[in-house]
Amino acid sequence: MYTQGLDAKAEQGNQPSPRLVTEEEGRLQQGFQDRVDAEEKIEPRDWMPDGYRRTLVRQISQHAHSEIVGMLPEGNWITRAPTLRRKVALLAKVQDEGGHGLYLYSAAETLGVSRDELIGQLLSGKAKYSSIFNYPTPTWADIGAIGWLVDGAAIMNQVPLCRCSYGPYARAMVRICREESFHQRQGYELMLALAQGTPEQKRMAQDALNRWWWPSLMMFGPSDEQSAHSSQNMAWKIKRFSNDELRQRFVDATVPQAEFLGLSIPDPDLRFNADTGHYEFGAIDWTEFNEILKGNGPCNRERIEARRKAWDDGAWVREAAVAHAAKRKQRALKKAG
Amino acid sequence: MDRKDWPLFEIFIRPKNGLSHKHVGSLHAADARMALDNARDVYTRRGEGVSIWAVPAAAIAASDPSDKASLFEPADDKVYRHPTFYDIPADVKNI
Q: Membrane-spanning regions, if any (chain A) (predicted)?
């Protein structure tokens, strides 16, 4: 589903190394930057600066974790979908998110980290994932709002990542973006059905929009002045557009969609500026975002506990798979022998 | 128990007969059979292919990118390997 600028404060990842750069390293770094500037893709075994590698491992793994954790709020509704049509769509969407997690973990692994290490970081609570998945999904309309808004924001953010300088990440993003558009459309269609339904259904849709609007805007990460990684990531062409630029695009695209639904955006300051051709919107409450990142969101604990439980409950399956593979190998050897 | 025993497989898909298998990504699996099953679930959810190869990543020998110059540059100055190197009068047809 999505990666976001989660790190408001600078981490060591992008800090210039305090030690002196040798002549050889300087030459390699210059060559690397020249390749990136020429829009050449960087592939796994190519030389790359340590900071580039660290940044990518962090971003791609956070993105992968977000896909996996993102299955939880929606999985909550699979058994309660109102029709079979909605149920198969939701099931397929959640399955896609699992697949997206796999593509991304695979891309991260090409940088020299192991899958077990990454999963360990998620389960221990050390790794971050998108703040949006720490909100609950109390009504069926939340499934529509997630598809429309959360996946819509994800697409806005992910399409430029298809041109990321790191080849395996860019290729994973191409696959993901291709699959993501169904997610957004099924969400909007669901919202449309509710918005055109009974007054109670319409109220439900409005309530979901009210709850998901601001968290969706926060998915683009801190504002440009607060975002520590932006300039280096832009130079490395990991990032193509700033958080604020992408957020603005999302607002511009989404407000007319809400109008079509006959729902109102929960922002009294929202207005169209005819001179700029853009919507102006109210200030974002970043304290909420920061609290969620610190682990104090409504569902942070529940999400990680659910992942841990899934991992522990699946242990016997992993063991059985290894035992079965060993048995099959033995049998094949005996047959050949 | 973790999955340290699960090797990495590179997955290749043939989109349709007449085309080559193309690398699409990788996954971990206990053995090749499981790799094929999982590749089918993950990489062919929307009719992407008619055939899957799962290759143990450890079995792939790869050239070193730092050898790029010595490996590939010698081909750059061998223009005589290309048909346009040879001058044929415009009057000569079908060549």
A: none
Phi, psi of A166, rounded to the nearest 5 degrees: -90, 115
Mean pLDDT check: name the lowest of A47-61, A228-242, A259-273: A228-242
Contact state of B65 with A109 under an 8 Å Cβ cutoff: no
| Predicted structure pTM score | 0.90
* SS3 label, residue A129: coil
Mutant choice from A67, A103, A111 vs B, greatest count of B C-beta within 10 A = A103
Dihedral over Cα of A128, A130, A135, A136: its sign: negative
Interface check for B74 against chain A (CB to CB < 8 A): the answer is no
CB A328 to CB B33 under 8 A?
yes
* In chain B, domain spans: 8-85
Q: How far apart are CA A142 and CA A144, in angstroms?
A: 5
Q: Phi and psi of A163, rounded to 5°?
A: -105, 15
Q: How many CB atoms lie within 10 A of CB A270?
A: 16
Is residue A298 a contact partner of residue A136, using CB atoms and an 8 Å limit?
yes
Asked if the Cβ–Cβ distance from B25 to A318 is below 8 Å, we say no
Say which CATH class B8-85 falls into.
alpha beta
> Is A96 an 8 Å CB contact of chain B?
yes
Outline where DSSP puts E strands in A110-256.
none
- Report yes or no: B25 at the A interface, CB cutoff 8 Å: yes
Give the span between the Cα atoms of A105 and A82, in whole angstroms.
33
Of B29, B42, B62, the CB nearest to A99: B42
Q: Contact A322/B27, CB-based, under 8 Å?
A: no
What is the value of ipTM here, to two decimals?
Answer: 0.85
User: Are the CB atoms for B35 and B59 separated by under 8 Å?
Assistant: no
Cα–Cα distance, A181 to A164 (Å, whole number): 20
How far is Cα A188 from Cα A258, in angstroms, rounded to an integer? 10
User: Token pair 């050898």 is at which residue?
Assistant: B67
Number of Cβ within 10 Å of residue B50's Cβ equals 13
For residue range B47-78, list pLDDT tens digits in order: 899 999 999 999 999 998 888 888 888 888 88
HEC string for A235-271: HCCCCCCCHHHHHHHHHHHHHHHHHHHCCCCCCCCCE
Among candidate residues A156, A147, A262, A261, the one with its CA nearest the CA of residue A212: A147
Instruction: State the residue for tokens 């999400």.
Output: A303
What is the distance, to the nearest Å, from the Cα of residue A68 to the centroid of all Cα atoms in its chain? 9
Q: Which 3 state secondary structure label does DSSP give B93?
A: coil
Distance, CA of B78 to CA of B80 (rounded, Å): 5
Q: Which residue has the tokens 């953010």?
A: A157
